[in-house]
Specification:
The complex is a heterodimer. Chain A is mainly alpha-helical. In chain A, about 80% of the residues lie in helices and about 0% in strands. The two termini of chain A are about 40 Å apart. Chain B is of the alpha+beta class. In chain B, strand 4 and strand 5 form a beta hairpin. The N and C termini of chain B lie far apart (about 65 Å). Classes of the chains: A mainly alpha, B alpha+beta. At the A-B interface, helix 7, helix 8, helix 15 and helix 18 of A face helix 1 and strand 2 of B.
Amino acid sequence: MPNLFTLVLQITVILAVCRVAGSVFRKFHQPRVVGEMFAGVLLGPSLMGWIAPHFSAYLFPPSSLGFLNALSQIGVVVFMFLVGLGINPKELKKHGHAAVLTSHVSITAPFVLAAFLSFYLYPKLSDDSVTFTSFALFMGAAMSVTAFPVLARILQERDWLGSRLGTVAIASAAVDDVTGWCILAYIVVLTRSAHSASPMYVTVGGIIGFALLMIYGVQRLLLGFEKSYRDRGGLSENAMALMLLLLLCAALCTEWLGLHLLFGAFLMGAIMPKEHHFVRYVLDRFETITVTLLLPLFFAFTGLRTNIGLVKGQEMWMYCGLIVLVATVGKLGGSTIAARLTTMPLREAAGLGTLMNTRGLMELVILDIGLDIKVISPALFSMMVLMALITTFMATPLLDVICPDRLVWEGTERASKWQKSSVPQLDLDATGGSAA
Amino acid sequence: MTSTTRRFAVSYVFLVFLPMIGLLGVLRQGRSLRAPVSVDGRWKLQFDPAQLAALPCGKALASVPDPVLAISQSGERFTLTTSGGLATTSSGVIQDTTLNAALQSSDSPGNGSGCDGDHSLTLIAKLDPTANPKSLSGVLSAKDCSVCAPVSFQAVRETHSEHKAGR
């Protein structure tokens, strides 16, 4: 049985610290979520465990972390559903060559650079229980991800959603996320099948069968939710409960198939109907509790696993610096070059690269999976968390310098109808659904 | 084919296809790389408690009924935690199949743990990577104590299912 006093105390402290850190970061024009991610690291062994080890041990005794983890994972399951809900494959088609080239290069450039970096890091930060292929592919997937919700939040705050830059960024980030999760699924299957009793082809076959069933079978049934919403102007409690049940069942299926809970949740979100008002309605129902209560628990749990003390000595900090450098050059540089080749002006292209370089929460989710399946070591995990924080933090000030508002709108025919026809995004600052 | 499409196609080949081929080459070449041997996990310790209790800093570990050494590995480096409250901040290195680590108590000195001043335990062990499950054999000795006799120990890595059950 969980010690309820400890659990409630943990939640109270985490929520308070996250809200304060989020508010401080808002003062520096950063999305609140960046502050909350930072708060998670502060609560872990990197700061609180270092300066107040006894209080840290009292607040987060190892025996209590299982319950905190369970709650945080439920939050991430719902979060991944909402991320999937915000992804619309039709967006990519709308923006043609620019989005296709930018998104694909923004994946391949950091991916290939990360694989080259793995040559150097694998013998130093991994061990022989992990194959080089799994290590390099994981590093590639982790470096090529884009924080879709954070990116949407930055665009929304700057009122860039209707600009060419905004639309290409949203479409490219959507492709990045879907591709990144497919690659990660492959790595998880590869790693887990080594410890699994069932052969790999059974797992892969099961996953493909499940995906096909979801896309060609369940997706049609889900249209009933949209119809019900249109007819009644909302969804009944039973309909919402059914949606939650389907989400949990999909998550359980992918976990049972040897993948991970989050893949099922993401897929369920991705195949939901994409009508603007319906998506906004569903986001509003789930958003507040997920963003204000459950995600901070995930940040705290990730922070508890992040020990910057493991990045000790010049050599380790050099590895960390290399990771940040390679991630930034690959993502920011790759996206900028690709956007420039599609005739986008240089500063606007660099703005797009900066937006694509935000990794934020999605990176933490991927890293958590990597640490769980032991593809990355605790020290590398800490370095990658630092990289996620730095690349996300640098987005706003960089955009201020290289891509001011007037440049974004210069030459862009403001598509005022775009916001109505496109899919709304998760509001990570939880300022209320109407904000989007 | 319009000039835009041609430009797109050429860019795509150079920026997507060629790097992908490069990636395949990297993955192929990387297979020959060797990472340090894996010691991550929980290890069941076996030693003579009476001998260990005689060492400065050894009392805490010697008094534990089923002592366990938990190793968290990051490449050549690792951190250690023992079930006796020792070594929550200790770290070590792996060279080939030899482990070297210093175990320090997280308790404050003078609380009966036997750790005073700069005393700490030194762990030197050799891994048998061919054993299934993997095993360690080595010695625990007191740092800066020339009259203290080192204590031999054996350790066997817990299997995945044992580890889960032990949680």
